[in-house]
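Case study.
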Amino acid sequence: MEKDTASIDPVEIIDDTSVKPFRVDFPQESIDDLRRRITTARWPSKELVEDASQGVQSKMLQELARYWATEYDFGRVTARLNALPQFTTEIDGVTVRFIHVKSAHENALPLIMTHGWPGSVIELLETIGPLTDPTAHGGNAEDAFDLVLPSIPGYGLSAQPTQLGWDPGRVARAWAELMRRLGYRRYVAQGGDQGASVTDAMARQAPDGLVGIHLSLLSAFPTDVGAAIFGGLLPVGLFKRIVIDVLAHHAKKKDPAALEAAAAVFKRGYIVEMPEHPQTIGYALTDTPVGLAAWMLDHDADSYTKISRAFLDGQPSGGLTREAVVDNMTLYWLTNTATSSARLYWEQFRAIFASIASGEKPPKLSLPVAFTVFPGELFQPPREWAEKAYPNLIYFNEVDKGGHFAAWEEPELFTAELRAAFRSLR
Amino acid sequence: MTEDIRHFQVDVPQEELDDLRRRVAAVRWPDRELVDDRSQGVQLATIRALADHWATHDWRRVEARLQALPQFVTEIDGVDIHFIHVRSDHDGALPVVVTHGWPGSIIEQLKIIGPLTDPAAHGASAADAFDVVIPSLPGHGFSGKPTERGWDPIRIARAWVVLMERLGYTRYVAQGGDWGNAVTEQMALLRPKGLIGIHTNMPATIPSEIAAALATGDTPEGLTGDEKYAWDQLDFFYKHGLAYAQEMGNRPQTLYAIEDSPIGLAAWMLDHDAASLDLITRVFEGASEGLTKDDVLDNVTLYWLTRTGVSSARLYWESKLAFFAPKGVDLPTGVSAFPDEIYTAPRSWAEKAYPNLIHYNRLPKGGHFAAWEQPQALSEEVRTSFRTLR
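After joint prediction, the assembly is written out as follows.
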């Protein structure tokens, strides 16, 4: 017996909770291969319309490809990330990598922010300065945050799960463990897109230490809105054209603009393909950088229009610059995460439908919730929806700039929202 | 505009074939799916086996097979329409225009040319002979790619009527599945002089009350056995099988990836419907089925070499037709219901959808690609359907 335990210590192997520094390093041959693939891309015939109604436009994507292959500095991603304190730790069997920037100010409020799809930590980088060092960015020392920016498993620099089950709820549990491991006993969380799903789940799980959240996308529809969109009328898993019909039907009756905008989300193919067969689309996206770029660009009309202006007219919208957009695509490509990132949707939908099938309601959420409505986000929920979804709504504000990638596009405004949202929780 | 009918020969430059082979060899793979079934899509083992086979696939064999057939191109409504045209040696052969679907092509139809044009050599009667016209849909295969909007199944149907007229046929029938069915039904609705009947292996028959029930997911009461079988198939399809159509119907141009990655194109095409993916998976595991590895790759390679991944997807964007809703076709109609089709139309639904139903049969075997997978059975269905119309 003694010999057995001496030869191997399973506890130590399984429970390695150490947090170690991490630096990004992409092999030059991967970068050369990427550039070669961009320059040898084979293009389809031009779309038959003069707008984006058939998808990403040829002119736009060809200009992006030209920029990516000939002007873009491939060292940017590595340089930007390695300029920041990055760490790695294993949680629940997956290696989680994260950026961790502590504020120099006393009593900074720890904040964990979660990116979405087709985002990554890249979309959050420009908020690091304003959030952690407010006095250098027009804020007060008492608005300072200690910032934790993890990559969702399957995204960016975190490892790709090799087993099922990594839905937003499991990511949320991992984040609570991460904050515990970092020694934070009182913290807040923020997210948009899939980050909102993760952050919503964290608040429902209400781990020790989490005192409030901020969201920029309403992922939890209030009961009656959810019923109008999904509940009652829809069987488990039915999420396709029929959803659109149902949405259109209800849109005539209540809050037409918001419901129609929500319905439009489901007319995007990605929102159906990735939950249904992430592996199938994954083969194509993994093998062609321009194909991956197009898929990522087609997330929503507002961000596509803005990014098009950056490439075709030289007029980026805020932080959605050519180089930043391509940084994000380069990160997806070099980490080979097109398929693994799509699987989050498969996991998420499976979890939602399992929950509907079981008849169980998601845990009540009583933690304080703050919400900012950005005008270009997928849809603009009225305050009433947010109040119904989150009875303890401590902050609700509609701002005049920014879209789906609010932190990326308008980092100063986004930061101002977080400062205001969390002020009462300090 | 010219009404000339020109001879057509397939001749793909060697550099295109070399480029394809190079791209397949240089493919970058994702990790394996996290499940042991096809619930996350095409499995890595299947597509890797396909890639291995592609390395040895001989496109020149396909070319030779096509060169052996009389092929033509003619411009209709501004688009070059490619078609195979094989006349029967038998007097009194009935002309039939056979239309493929997506992700199909003329490759799907090659195996029925012999049985239809030369029935005597295939165990059938000379009296059942057909002259066969097999066009490539606009934006598909060797037909031109439309450069303007509007090429939906209705416009294609009009073009096919012109094609048959131009070939001098004054009394003919039409056949199809998938988009081929949509085009064939629209031809029937146009009621062109000369079209005397249709045959479909993917009929549009879903009654409105069933369509409404599919929207709620509540299984209707009182379904017969065949109706319940169809209901279960449709319920599955609407829940788990529509994503590709959703993407192509709304954002076809965004699929740049399938134009730049042969493996990505292959995976996208394999994932059409669960039963055919099951079949093709078995084929690449080495099972002997109605389709061979070469069959599958002949078709994918045709899409690749003709650069029609995105242009073919646009048909979904163009079409505003409900795919399975009855359209009011009252010409004589034959229906063949294959068990592994997206849904196996029950006779009761077919009778309502096609008041002039001249033939109905439930086949014991076969799926979405009936002509390709079960050419003898499909040929016999076509013969039987149209026998009374001769």
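Observations recorded in class. Chain B touches chain A through 62 residues (CB under 8 Å). The mean pLDDT of chain B is 97. We will return to this complex in the next lecture.
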